[in-house]
Amino acid sequence: MRPILMKGHERPLTFLRYNRDGDLLFSCAKDHTPTVWYADNGDRLGTYRGHNGAVWSCDVSRDSARLITGSADQTAKLWDVSTGRELFSFRFDAPARSVEFAIGDALAVITTDNFMDHVPTVQVKHIAEDLDDQTDESALVITGIKGRINRAVWGPLNRTIITAGEDATIRIWDTEWIPLVDIDAMDPSL
Question: Side-chain half-sphere of 70: how many Cα atoms within 13 Å?
Answer without folding.
Answer: 30
